[in-house]
Design goal:
Layout (H helix, E strand, L loop, with lengths): L17 H15 L32 H7 L3 E2 L6 E4 L4 E8 L5 E2 L1 E5 L9 E3 L3 H10 L9 E2 L3 E2 L4 E10 L5 E5 L4 E3 L4 E5 L14 E4 L4 E5 L4 H8 L5 H13 L9 E3 L4 E3 L6 E3 L7 E2 L8 E3 L12 E3 L10 E8 L2 E3 L5 E3 L3
Parallel strand pairs: 5-6
Antiparallel strand pairs: 1-2, 2-3, 3-6, 3-21, 4-20, 5-18, 7-8, 9-10, 9-15, 9-21, 11-20, 12-14, 13-14, 15-19, 16-17, 22-23
Length: 346
C-alpha cells in the first residue's frame, strides 16, 4: 500500500485534506518517474521488465512488436515499466495480463496478487501511479458512490477504456473493455408464482419452486429449447410470464455503463498516523460500486456476494496470462454550435 511515509511529503502535509495529500502523492510519483526537468537515468525498454523483486514475482514476458507500438513514445511512470503517460496522445497506458476469464466480477483490473479471483486483469503496478497519470492529463478526482435515502452514483471525469492484445492468429486486436463484460447470468432468477405447475416434478431442468415465498426460481442462462419445453408444461399466464421473464433476464447483454475517475480515498492509521491510499487494496478499475474505487461505473452495481451485477464474458477474452495494454482515455467535451459541451468521439 502507498503510505505517506514512503513519499517526500512535509510533516505538516499529513494533517492536510485528502485531496492535498493525493496531490502530494502525485507530485512525488511524477518526480520519481522522471517527468520533471531533473535529469534521470534512462528507463528500461518497454518490452522488458527487471528481475524478480523481494516479492518473488517473476519477470514479465517481453511484449510483441505490435504492443510495443501501442506504447510508442509514452513516458514510463514506474520501475516495472507497466504504467505509461502518453501526454501528446491524451492517454494513460497500463500493461496488464489476463488473470481470469470466467469470474463473477467486482473489478476489471487489480494490482497483482490482490483479488485476482474477482477480476479479468491484473497489473504489476501501484494504483497511485495510475492516479498520477490521470492527474497529469489534467483530470480531477470526483466523488464516490453513496447510499443514503437513495443511491447517488459516483461522479468524475469520464474515461473510455480500450484493451489491446495479440490474438491466436498473431493479429493486433483493440476493443472497448466493456465488450469483455456482460450481465451476471450464472445466478438465480426468481418470479412470483402462487403455485407450482401441476403435475410437473420439480426440480425440473434448472427450475425450482420456493413454497415459502411462493415464487419460481431458475438458475443460469435459459436456452430456446428450455423455454419451449417449459412453456408447454402449463397453460397459465402467470407461469408463462415467469418462464419468458427468466429467458429474457438470463440472456447475455454487454455492459454499457460509463467509467469515471473517482480517485479513491486515504485512510489515516489511528495508531501510527500513516496515510494509506485505499485503492491499493484492489479497487482500481471497478464494475461494482466501492467508496474507495479509483475508477468506478456510473450506475448502481452491487458489491454484495451473491448479488454481483457483472461477470467476465469468457468467450470474448483471450487466454490467461495474455499480455494486454489498457488505454485510459479521458472523454473530452467539445462545444457544439449552441455552446453546449458534447462528448468528443474516440
Amino acid at each position: 500500500m502507498l503510505r505517506a511515509s514512503m513519499i517526500p511529503i512535509a510533516p505538516s502535509a499529513v494533517a492536510c485534506s485528502p485531496r492535498l495529500i493525493v496531490f502530494c502523492c502525485v507530485a512525488a510519483a511524477v518526480t520519481v518517474c522522471g517527468l520533471n526537468a531533473v535529469a534521470q537515468p534512462p528507463a528500461p525498454a518497454p518490452d522488458t521488465v527487471g528481475k524478480s523483486g523481494a516479492d518473488g514475482l517473476p519477470p514479465l514476458a517481453p511484449l510483441s512488436p505490435e504492443l510495443q507500438k501501442v506504447l510508442g513514445k509514452a513516458q514510463q511512470l514506474n520501475p516495472d515499466a507497466t504504467v505509461f503517460l502518453d501526454k501528446a496522445g491524451g492517454r494513460v497506458l497500463v500493461r496488464s495480463e489476463i488473470a481470469c476469464r470466467d469470474c463473477i466480477l467486482e473489478m476489471i483490473c487489480v494490482p497483482e496478487r490482490v483479488k485476482e479471483h474477482e477480476t479479468i486483469l491484473r497489473m504489476r503496478a501501484r494504483a497511485y501511479v495510475v492516479h498520477a497519470g490521470l492527474i497529469a492529463l489534467g483530470l480531477e478526482a470526483g466523488t464516490p458512490a453513496v447510499w443514503e435515502d437513495r443511491f447517488v452514483p459516483p461522479k468524475g471525469s469520464e474515461i473510455s477504456i480500450y484493451a489491446n492484445w495479440i490474438d491466436a492468429n498473431g493479429k493486433h486486436q483493440r476493443k472497448d473493455i466493456r465488450t469483455w463484460v456482460r450481465n451476471n447470468i450464472h445466478r438465480y432468477f426468481s418470479r412470483p408464482l402462487p403455485t407450482p405447475p401441476p403435475g410437473l416434478k420439480i426440480p425440473y431442468r434448472e427450475l425450482r419452486y420456493d413454497n415459502f415465498n411462493r415464487e419460481a426460481i431458475w438458475f443460469g442462462p435459459m436456452s430456446e429449447e428450455d423455454r419451449a419445453d417449459l412453456l408447454g408444461k402449463w397453460d397459465n399466464k402467470t407461469y408463462k410470464d415467469a418462464i419468458n421473464g427468466f429467458f429474457e433476464d438470463s440472456q447475455s447483454r454487454q455492459m454499457e455503463a460509463k467509467f469515471v475517475f473517482v480517485g479513491s480515498q486515504f485512510y489515516k492509521d489511528p495508531d501510527t498516523g500513516e496515510q494509506v491510499y485505499l485503492a491499493e487494496g484492489g479497487h482500481v478499475l471497478c464494475v461494482s460500486n466501492f467508496a474507495d474505487a479509483l475508477i468506478d461505473i456510473v450506475e448502481e452495481s452491487s458489491s454484495a456476494d451473491g448479488a454481483l451485477t457483472y461477470e467476465a464474458w469468457a468467450e470474448r477474452i483471450p487466454p490467461v496470462d495474455t499480455p494486454v495494454i489498457l488505454e485510459l482515455i479521458p472523454v473530452r467535451k467539445a462545444p457544439t454550435a449552441g455552446g453546449q459541451p458534447e462528448a468528443t468521439p474516440e
